[in-house]
Design brief:
The complex is a heterodimer of chains A (376) and B (270). Chain A has 376 residues and is of the alpha/beta class. In chain A, 37% of the residues lie in helices and 21% in strands. Chain A has 2 domains: 264 residues, Thiamin diphosphate (ThDP)-binding fold, Pyr/PP domains (Rossmann fold, 3-Layer(aba) Sandwich); 105 residues, Rossmann fold. In chain A, the strands form 3 sheets. In chain A, strands 3-2-4-5-7-6-13 form a 7-stranded mixed sheet, sandwiched between helices. In chain A, helix 1 packs across helix 2, helix 3 packs parallel to helix 4 and helix 11 packs across helix 12. The longest helix of chain A has 18 residues. Chain B is α/β, with parallel strands linked by helices. Chain B has a single domain, classed as Rossmann fold. Chain B has 11 helices and 10 strands. In chain B, helix 10 links the parallel strand 9 and strand 10. In chain B, helix 2 crosses helix 7 and helix 5 runs parallel beside helix 6. Classes of the chains: A alpha/beta (376), B alpha/beta (270). At the A-B interface, strand 2, helix 3, helix 4 and strand 9 of A face strand 2, helix 3 and helix 5 of B. Strand 9 of chain A pairs parallel with strand 2 of chain B.
């Protein structure tokens, strides 16, 4: 392992650096952008000392492209940016999904659209994470809510991107990225490596069904791999005119993630039997957590992963409670899909607390709203 | 290496039109590669989007067919994480100089050990003949029906200015010189760039009264001038390429340390 176990006091972005190194990161390409730059700066210092490569590229498009290229060499590869950078990267994120390239993309979200609020937190990129590129595909996204989770979920991002050959996002924000706190690095960290053509290991990735995730033909091993963003068969031949190949491929890209929700999704539940449940994730969960821990009548479902949408816990909670409140730092991006699941599961009322401008919803904001809903 | 070993026979027939210059450049590349006695299990070929960017898919090695304009960026990541592989990029004028211009300039500047071969057919061929950044002034295309009023880019001059270690330009009429330059480029440590001015009879020639492939090749022959013979003209002429003359030759052959060497990654064969 390339990081030492023990306790550290550091910034969320610095914890992400530790998590990436603990996951055996081999290649990072970045471009300066607030509020994610500390990740690039940290890796510029640390990565070369572990035998990895740090590269500052000419723009974010080049970063994501280089990261995908590097991943085909077989090593774990990552980039970190914020909303405008993600917007630029979208075409190649779609390429990574189509070519089934394991990569990790860290998005330290800031207020948008456009240049927006570079130094303030937001959750405005929830939908562009899932639907940013053209076409149908699925990704994995974790939403950390502490310095510790910036580390833990970075490791998870690598593990799941390797296991499912898919882009995995660490969906952080300026609040979490810049907050300082305690990080405990454990003695043992579980890391997963992709299943490779012609290589046999006793890894978790080998348990994934062959039907949905094919072994990875690493470059430079005589695989004569064909990697393409065009519609292709399982053997790599280009078949842009074949409707069945297209349907099967795009269907499989979605299925391999959606059918693995129980393996991927993580969440936390406080006061699960409460009749009013607040749903939140990342820094929008700070306020709700304070309210729920002080009031047994208010429950909190904190989503640790948001894509694929954790339908199982949402549906279970929605079936038990009378009303739900979704707290977000956007105009309701995750609210709509959550509302669909909740209403289908029998919950009668689902409301949105939208906090805009850079400050996470405070306990006061949440209590005011819950009073109006008759829960307090 | 035999032609049949070098190319993937299972992907034949290729998609290039009759008379296309891509076959000539592929042939030159295969000859250069064979003369260097290189191993296809220690290479990777990267392309962007466009006709020439499809060439990697026909070579019997690992191939990456990437997004439009980004081939050099993909290749940079691959090469830096696998310095044991010789990475070659096939690209076209639109892919390299228009949408990928930023990566081209910075690739030359960064000097990662890549060989970039640009087949410049002066047109967007795959999409049906739209003007590109190298379409000569006043020439016709589907998007310049009244003549191209922009001035063309000189890709080789950009590569020289941006710092590539090796820069050469030939046309598909210069097969021996082109083969020799490809060989030199592959053997070079650092960023090497070979521009092959090539014919697109279907989408460039037909609209510009040169519908026969041979008409375009004759035009290349008549308008090509070796740099050593045209040095004065080359210095004060910005729009050299096809604006009356095609300056060809080996423009730069220098030995700045490659990026890999400077950051201490892998071994780049020197």
């Amino acid at each position: 392992m390339t990081v030492e176990s023990g306790q550290l006091f550091l910034q969320g972005n610095e914890a992400c650096v530790e998590g990436a190194l603990a996951s055996d990161l081999k290649f990072f390409a970045g471009y300066p952008i607030t509020p994610s730059t500390e990740i690039a700066e940290g890796l510029a210092r640390r990565l070369p000392k572990t035998g990895g490569v740090f590269l500052q590229m000419e723009d974010e498009i080049a970063c994501i492209s280089a990261v995908i290229g590097s991943s085909w060499g077989g090593g774990k590869s990552m980039t970190a940016t914020s909303g405008p950078g993600i917007s630029l990267m979208q075409e190649s994120i779609g390429y990574a999904a189509m070519s089934e390239t394991p990569i990790v993309v860290v998005n330290v979200m800031r207020g948008g659209p456009s240049t927006g609020q570079p130094t303030r937190a937001s959750q405005g990129d929830v939908m562009q994470t899932k639907h940013g590129a053209h076409g149908d595909y699925q990704v994995i996204a974790f939403a950390p809510a502490s310095v510790q989770e910036m580390f833990d979920f970075t490791v998870d991002c690598f593990n799941y991107s390797e296991k499912y050959r898919v882009p995995a996002f660490l969906l952080s924000d300026a609040e979490i990225g810049h907050m300082r706190g305690l990080l405990t690095i454990p003695d043992k960290i579980k890391t997963v490596r992709r299943k490779e053509v012609g290589v046999r290991r006793s890894d978790e990735a080998y348990e994934v069904s062959n039907e949905l995730v094919k072994p990875f033909p690493t470059f430079g091993r005589g695989n004569k791999a064909i990697v393409t963003g065009m519609t292709h068969s399982n053997e790599g031949t280009i078949e842009p005119e074949n409707w069945r190949v297209h349907k099967d491929l795009v269907g499989r890209l979605s299925d391999k993630i959606l059918k693995s929700r129980r393996d991927i999704n993580k969440w936390e539940l406080i006061n699960e039997d409460a009749k009013t449940i607040v749903v939140a994730y990342g820094s929008s969960s700070f306020g709700p957590r304070d309210v729920a821990t002080k009031n047994p009548d208010i429950g909190l479902l904190r989503l640790k992963s948001i894509w694929p949408l954790p339908e199982e816990p949402l549906s279970e909670v929605a079936g038990r409670c009378d009303q739900m409140l979704v707290c977000e730092m956007n105009l309701g991006q995750l609210y709509d899909p959550i509302k669909r699941v909740a209403l289908e599961s029998g919950c009668k009322k689902v409301e949105l607390l939208s906090k805009m401008g850079g400050e996470p919803p405070t306990p006061g904001d949440v209590r005011d709203r819950l009073r109006k809903m008759g829960a307090l | 290496m035999e032609v049949f070993e070098f190319f993937r026979q299972d992907s034949w027939p290729h998609l290039f039109c009759p008379g296309c210059g891509n076959g000539t450049v592929m042939n030159c590349f295969q000859r250069a590669f064979s003369e260097l006695e290189m191993d296809l299990s220690k290479t990777a070929f990267v392309g962007g989007i466009g006709c020439s960017s499809r060439i990697p898919l026909y070579i019997n090695s690992d191939a990456m067919h990437t997004t439009h304009g980004r081939a050099i960026a993909f290749a940079t990541g691959l090469r830096l994480s696998r310095p044991d592989l010789k990475v070659v990029v096939f690209t076209g004028d639109g892919d390299l100089g228009a949408i990928g211009g930023n990566h081209f300039i910075n690739g030359c500047r960064r000097n990662v050990d890549l060989t970039v071969i640009c087949i410049n057919n002066n047109i967007y061929g795959m999409t049906g003949g739209q003007a590109s950044i190298t379409t000569p002034h006043d020439f016709l295309s589907t998007t310049t029906p009244y003549g191209n009023k922009e001035y063309p880019f000189d890709l080789a001059e950009i590569a020289v200015a941006a710092g590539a270690n090796y820069v050469a330009r030939w046309t598909t009429r210069h097969v021996h010189e082109l083969t020799k330059s490809i060989k030199a480029a592959i053997g070079k440590s650092g960023f090497s760039f070979v521009e092959a001015v090539s014919q697109c009879p279907t989408n460039f020639g037909r609209r510009n009264k040169m519908g026969e492939p041979t008409a375009l090749l004759d035009w290349f022959k008549d308008s090509s001038i070796r740099r050593d013979k045209a040095r004065a003209a080359a210095i004060d002429h910005v729009d050299l390429n096809l604006a009356g003359q095609i300056t060809v030759g080996e423009f730069v052959n220098r030995d700045r340390d490659s990026y890999e060497k400077l950051i201490g990654v892998g071994n780049n064969g020197d």
